[in-house]
Amino acid sequence: MKDLCLLALDAAKAKGATYADARVVQFRRQYVVTEDQRVSAIQDSESLGIGVRVIADGAWGFAATASLEKGEVERVAALAVETAKASALAKAPEGVHWAQEPPHEGTFRTPIEKNPFEVPLEDKIQVLLSANKEILAVKGIKKAHSYMLFKQEHRYLANTEGSMIESETFTSTATIRATAVDEETAKTRYFEAHPLNIGYEHIASTPLVAEARRVGEEAVAQLKGKPCPVGKKDLVLHPSHLALTMHESIGHATELDRVLGMEESLAGSSFATIDKLGNLKYGSPIMNIICDNTLPQGLATSGYDDDCVPGRKWHIIRDGILVDYQSGREVCHAIGAKSSRGSCRADSWASIPIIRQSNIGLAPGTEPLTLEEMIADTKDGIYIEGMGSFSIDQKRQNFQFGGDCSWEIKDGKKGAILKDVTYQAITTEFWGSLDAICDEQSWTPYGILGCGKGDPMQIAQMSHGSAPARFRQINVGGTK
Ligand SMILES: [Zn+2]
Fold this sequence. Notes:
By secondary structure, the chain is α+β, with helices and mostly antiparallel strands. The longest helix is centred in the N-terminal third of the chain and has 18 residues, at about 70-85. The protein is about 20% helix and about 40% strand. The chain contains nine helices and 25 strands. Helix 1 packs across helix 2 (about 70-85). The protein is globular. The strands form five sheets. Strands 8, 9, 16, 17, 18, 19, 20, 21, 22 and 25 form a ten-stranded mixed sheet that branches. The site of zinc ion has 3 residues, from loops.
């Protein structure tokens, strides 16, 4: 595979490329789904191919093929150069800025104890059906739906600067979901072995079956839940919920290509423009947002990004102030940075790398604080777990989020289940109201597996960790 990458680089240089990288990726995905007491889907797919990206005449070209024949690899490399030369007719006068990066030779492998692809399908189905059985045993439940998803990506990446990288990553996750129905409506509740780059040991150590009955009971309880109050409440948000709020209101808003207006497909542009770098009050002084592509088990942790930049760790928000972005080698010059933060990834050998969210997390509080203590310290609030509905505007400012299950907090006690809870806020006001974060003991990296970006769309994954956090006086209710 390494030889094929080098062959592609030589072919591209011979045709006039001033820079080239070649990526051979072998990808496997297994998805096992059960509904009630039957298996409803088993998908197991593999793909293998090479993508060649070049700069020629100061413009980009890219071409890819699923054939690893030598002649075909040379043809694709030449096609990438031809495309670049054609693109150069309409390029920006200054051409492509390409930040310097020393050559890297390295390997990375997700540490796993048990390869998920070596676990028999029967074992996986057994766990899912057992969980479904427990859910269906709860009175009022109409449907149980559960799945496991596993990914393996083996990548060889080389460039004309001398980098030669090999990586192998594994992703594992499982979710069980209960649906309760009455005459008026339906409510769902889920529980998961949250997505991580890890082996099957993660699934095996998550009590999917043991928690199933509670999941069913909480779905039913939501049918009879108290209506969401309307007005201002203090919100205590569990990391399983806050992950999506961070993803939408911080993650996408700080992708440098989006900030610069180079990419607006799907998720729009950003209010956090570069004139605000170093002075925008994104949130309260206890808000520290750290990108970390070295995070153990992180969904975006793969050793190096597709620009051949090693995984890095940096603040984008420090003490509440916007101090940096997520960047790639092409765009980092726009903020005066000499080198990339290493956030450029492609979703397959057939896709060109684009700036993707890193693993982004909210740093835990520095004082000892548990979730129970945080709730005990909250007079009149709402506690939210899990991801639900969301919407956010094209500048990433006005948003609305719902969760998977919510409870009222009255005089320091977690009380009744509420239904149809949503909250609305403006990004900087919301993060500005952050007044407490639990300590590192409860810091957990939840994650997103289906982040869409680009045109044609690419799907990426990344982790968003936090400890439970409290936001004061946020508008809730008013929607159904
Ligand atoms: Zn996204």
